[in-house]
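Help!! Second protein's tokens look totally different from the first
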Amino acid sequence: MATSDACDPELVPTHTTVAARSVAGWAQRHYGLAVEHCVLIRRGLNDNYALRVAGGVRHVARLYTIRPRGPFNVDFETALLKHLQGRGVGVAAPVDTTAGGSHVRLPCPEGERGLALFHHVEGAVPDALDDFAATGEVLARMHAAARDYAGPPSLYALDGHGLAGRTLAWLRAYPGLDAGVLASYESLIGSLLEELAAAEPALTRVLCHGDTHGFNNHVVADEAGSKRAVLFDFDDAGPGFLAYDLGVMPWSYLLRKGLREADDLLRERWTHYLAGYRAAGGLITDADLAALPLFIQLRHLWNLGEGVGRLHHWGTSVAPEDWLRKQIEVMAAWKRLDLGPASADSVGGPPV
């Protein structure tokens, strides 16, 4: 077989995994850091790397993936984090480049990608009930502190189009998807968007974190045992609805456990989560609580869309046709989801 050193123009990369040593070199060059250790944490929506620099200080480098939704939202994300840090909210703050920028652009084979650096957050993901109370508390503080944010606007909103409209477009582009499955999604998404339009006037709007599923914050305890939570990974932050930001946590639990209704542990976590949110001054209306099943379904559609929108990167195995068909039944069950407290006044739980 003949071989050639020339690049084949038909050999088109869709996503590259950059070597940790390259990320270390870029961090040293653009951030002026003496990197002693760098390792890939995981590939996913973005590629994240752990860095340790001289003196033992730790950072996380995020190499943004080219997403089907459009351009990187990094200017908004980093400006919001600086604003929240200035308001005393526990967040993983960004690190400026030596030139004073929020990130750098790197020429990867598939196209230009952004690289940003963040401070490492100590602690562990929430597990105990008071961990979920602490998580609810920091989310309430984040929502309150973001009210006067006036930096670069988000390129994306967590609205009907952002949560479900794009997903429908990507489903329509799914190669060979059964016409009946597609029709079911068209009907479901149309119905949910109508429900959202009817509920929207009564819903509380916030600047959402967008991905508070329990693995994007760490909980730390001080010497007295008092716990606080710190949020990170604001890549999906943007203007949206309180019910959506609150609903991501129970959605994640239901999905990971393969449940169509809440179990006792989820109800306990949910009660403590809301108690923490309210203890920090967060206001939740009956309309917000009533909309939770709607937004849990919309969150599932958003997540599903991230899979079907990246078939070029992740392949069809992340959202095969049989799985897509089953999710119609799952969301039908979640439409009747009961997480416990029926009204804002009945949300109890221990003091935080």
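Here's the second one for comparison:
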Amino acid sequence: MTEVQAGQVPVLDPDERTRDRVLTAVLEHGPVSAAQMGKLLGLTPAAVRRHLDTLSRHGVIEVKLISNAKSGAGRPARRYVVSRQGQTKIGDDYLEIARLALKELAATRGGQGVMEFAERRFAHMESSYQPLVDAAGPDVAARSKALARALTADRFVATSDSLNPHSAMAAEQLCQGHCPIQELATTFPEFCDAETEVFSRLLGVDVRRLSTMASGGHVCTTHVPTGRAVVRKRVSAPAGTVRTNGNISNHQQERP
């Protein structure tokens, strides 16, 4: 590709533009054969295979062997599909779509609409984690460590470390090293608030979010008091319920 100077808009060469068309065809029509793509795009079979080979080398697409559904005889046909790696790369577009959709929701229903959406998003997490946390018993520290294990099983890479044990200031520091919605939460901190509320209900104590990756932290950190904490009776918040008591959100309470 021609080198792009500072301030210039990068321009794809013809090969790259055609390769993008081939990838789009695989995404939209896969599993699809090279011959079918040639007809769809108006390209020769040789040209299609050249671009397919390049996309395969980069791990963006992969070959799927499909047997003859009618007779089951003969060599399986080669069909092309987008690989998991390719789906991840293409997923950037879906992130932008999600961001635009949430902006539209905020424009029509305000922050309450976004908060209700975020709460519904975390409802499944709360229901699936509750038995795991309750199995740890009434000790808040044990519950926090159980929550960390549940989060880690879902690839949040979480830990729960004890601070100032055996004192009135005792606490657990619950940290998450991975956030799958970090980019969205940067624009919509309601997701961080909803998650923090779920943690509070799961653990049975008031927790405080100290930092989030969405706001620039290298991990998401939640302070869980245990020194004088007594697990309160759990009251599940109905889906879509938004706090209206004027309290400052957990996201706004964050410390640098």
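Reply: Different proteins will give different token patterns, so don't panic. The beta strands are 61-66, 77-82, 158-163, 171-176, 208-211, 220-225.
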